[in-house]
Amino acid sequence: MPRMNLSHFEAAALFAFFTSILLGIITKRTDRERVRYAVYCFVCFIAAIFGLSWLMYLGHG
Questions:
Q1: Do residues 23 and 44 make contact, with C-beta atoms less than 8 angstroms apart?
Q2: Straight-line distance from the first to the last Cα atom of the chain, in angstroms, rounded to the nearest whole number
Q3: Does residue 23 contact residue 41 with C-beta atoms inside 8 Å?
Q4: Which of 18, 43, 45, 51 is deepest in the core (most CB within 10 A)?
Q5: By the 8 A CB rule, do 37 and 21 touch?
Q6: Nearest to 49, CA basis, from 6, 9, 11
Q7: Spatial separation of the C-alpha atoms in residues 1 and 48, rounded to whole Å
Q8: Nearest 5°: CA angle at 35, between 22 and 24?
Q9: Are 34 and 28 in contact (CB under 8 A)?
């Protein structure tokens, strides 16, 4: 079986993608609401990834 070598960012983005899709499916009623909410969640996940990574970088020195 082929192995996937993902960086930490790639793994986090993949997690954000699938989690956003799942949240959109289970929380909204119409397809349009689902897509908009999934995109919103994905953007929030990516913003959190960048924000927390900068906090760790600045906190580490």
A1: no
A2: 40
A3: yes
A4: 45
A5: no
A6: 9
A7: 33
A8: 25
A9: yes
Contact 47, 58 (CB under 8 A): no
How far is residue 49's CA from residue 55's CA, in Å, rounded to a whole number? 10
d(CA 21, CA 58): 32
3-state SS of 6-61 is CCHHHHHHHHHHHHHHHHHHHHCCCHHHHHHHHHHHHHHHHHHHHHHHHHHHHHHC
- Of 40, 36, 32, the C-alpha closest to 16 is 40
Q: pLDDT tens digit string along 8-45?
A: 999 999 999 999 999 999 999 999 999 999 999 999 99
